[in-house]
Design brief:
Chains A, B: Belongs to the HypE family. Chains A, B: InterPro entries: HypE (IPR011854), PurM-like_C_dom (IPR010918), PurM-like_C_sf (IPR036676), PurM-like_N (IPR016188), PurM-like_N_sf (IPR036921). The structure is a homodimer of 329-residue chains. With 329 residues, chain A is α+β, with helices and mostly antiparallel strands. The first copy, chain A, folds into two domains: 113 residues, 60s Ribosomal Protein L30, Chain: A; 166 residues, PurM-like C-terminal domain (Phosphoribosyl-aminoimidazole Synthetase, Chain A, domain 2, Alpha-Beta Complex). Chain A contains nine helices and 14 strands. The first copy, chain A, has a seven-stranded mixed β-sheet with strand order 9-11-8-12-10-13-14. A five-stranded mixed β-sheet of chain A has the order 1-2-7-5-6. In chain A, strands 3-4 form a two-stranded antiparallel ribbon. In chain A, strand 5, helix 4 and strand 6 form a beta-alpha-beta unit. The mean pLDDT of chain A is 94. At the A-B interface, helix 1, helix 2, strand 1, strand 2 and strand 5 of A face helix 1, helix 2, strand 1, strand 2 and strand 5 of B.
């Protein structure tokens, strides 16, 4: 299970098994989406499979995730998603009405994100070889001229901005899966980030890197960028927006919010001189109201993420090994 | 299970559930791949999930299928595949060496087809919720200028060409799955058709429609074209290339070769005046040596496929209802 968790084991699987077998230059960049060139235009291309359990949860469904997950991967290259493919793997015996409800949710999410579902496929497997509905989406979108967003562009001096409160998706899934109640219902933050990224790019096309901290949470996203860019990252923990209900739930469940999945947040690496203007634009967007500068990139401890704790100490923020929450998306 | 078989039940699922929920114009065309426009270029975009059992079979593997299935869907729009995405859903406990072997097969097939695996994703589900390895691929390719291949262009007078012997993939899967032996080992015809289509387009860009007869076999492909174009199709059964070992196996298994899946064949609808030249070019290509004109499009019985049997009679070739061979691809 750990190989699917977005941590060290996932990274090893990609680097040791998939990348050598497939061996293309676009894959080697290890971004959320690949930047490719075809017919003279520059596109972002990305895919995700969705195996979340349960299929419907507070704040969303597998249909919403299937759209927003891929739309967000494209947005992390600066691209506005234009077209999605959609492949269903259905388990024999799943109710058609459930397939219909998920499809409606997927269609609504696509319309909300301004993306067209252009092509699809359905396979059915025997009972006991699936779990109701699995969905794969792939998406393509145009990368605007002058935009070159990738981890390798991150450099010392860049400021690190997170677009809002972290930990909501993972805690929402866990609470409904385990039947836990935390006083207020915690809703997934599942949302499409193409519009927010567009707003940021309107301030400056020179965003260095973007990442949506899904599996493995903010900790995994920061570590991936630190490794790919070879810079150090320093975070001030008290600047990271963690809602009190997420803190309480994580304390109860023994989780660290830094490692909990998000499905409607991004972390941006922005040149220092542009950071205030980008932050201001984010605050004016519905999905960026709580955006905050949480740290900076530094020359020392290259490839390592260090957090300054609320108590005045420091700690290394590691890439998770396996996963703390299986089938979160 | 029938909803995954490529027959009437699959068509109903798409038309009654998916198409209304997603509601885009590209999907509505119901081609093997969608023709889309982005940044001023015209692309084919397609996806397929692969759940074949067993993962390795005579003549190929799920890795070969995952490449060739999507490459062929793109080829059916006249596009040469350029980039693939690849999403793995692994079942907990599957051996990493098996994942590695499948990945190697997939990478080799991609290199053979001249397509780059640009982006990927891996999810892991618990034992008992998968079956070793499921793979989804999506692909994009450029549609050449002047090419407009879609079922709606088929018209009375068009000739119907099949590129070679039918039934090999389905019989190969069945024989290994059921432990049957038919004297000679029957190998899957799994292959990438982009080169063959390129050869045909070099003769004339005016191919009307192409289809790769996978699930549901040649019968399903012909029925889909008849329905989408509103023309009648007449087939001469004795002109359809069925290898003797496929005939024997089908007789033994109670199958009709017309309904058995192929993974390296296409059926083309070609203007009558171009048909001989296209056929000649196909014969000169390694994947078209046994290409044959098997019938024609007619004005009577619109939307219906009729076969002239070897015995001098006629029969209606229906779209299959459900499926005769589950998890064939």
């Amino acid at each position: 299970m750990g190989h699917g968790g977005g941590g060290v084991m996932s990274a090893e699987l990609v680097q040791d098994v998939f990348a050598p077998a497939f061996g293309g230059p676009a894959l080697a960049a290890l971004s959320d989406s690949a930047a490719i060139r075809i017919g003279g235009v520059r596109l972002a291309f990305s895919t995700d499979s969705f195996v979340v359990r349960p299929l419907f949860f507070p704040g969303g469904s597998i249909g919403d995730l299937a759209v927003n997950g891929t739309v967000n991967d494209l947005a992390m290259s600066g691209a506005r998603a234009a077209y999605l493919s959609c492949g269903f793997i259905l388990e024999e015996g799943v109710e058609l009405s459930l397939v219909g409800r998920v499809s409606q949710a997927l269609g609504s999410a696509a319309r909300a994100a301004g993306v067209e579902v252009a092509t699809g496929d359905t396979k059915v497997v025997e009972a006991g070889h699936g779990d109701g509905i699995y969905i794969n989406t792939a998406g393509i979108g145009l990368i605007p001229d002058g935009v070159d967003i990738r981890p390798q562009r991150v450099a010392p001096g860049d400021l690190v901005i997170v677009s809002g409160a972290i930990g909501l998706h993972g805690v929402a899934i866990m609470s409904v899966r385990e039947g836990l109640e935390f006083g207020v219902e915690i809703q997934s933050d599942c949302a499409a980030l193409g519009g927010l990224v567009g707003t940021m790019l309107a301030v400056t096309p020179d965003l260095h890197a973007l990442r949506d901290p899904t599996r493995g949470g903010l900790a995994a996203a920061l570590n991936e960028i630190a490794t790919a860019s070879g810079t150090g990252i320093e975070i001030r923990e008290r600047n990271v927006p963690v809602p009190p209900e997420v803190s309480s739930a994580c304390a109860f469940l023994g989780l660290d919010p830094m490692y909990v999945a998000n499905e409607g947040k991004l972390v941006a690496f922005v040149p220092r001189q542009d950071a205030d203007a980008v932050l201001e634009a984010m605050h004016a967007h519905p999905l960026g109201g709580q955006a905050a500068i949480i740290g900076e990139c530094v020359e020392h401890h290259p490839g390592m993420v260090v957090a300054h704790t609320g108590l005045g100490g420091t700690r290394v923020v590691d890439l998770p090994i396996g996963e703390q929450l299986p089938r979160i998306c």
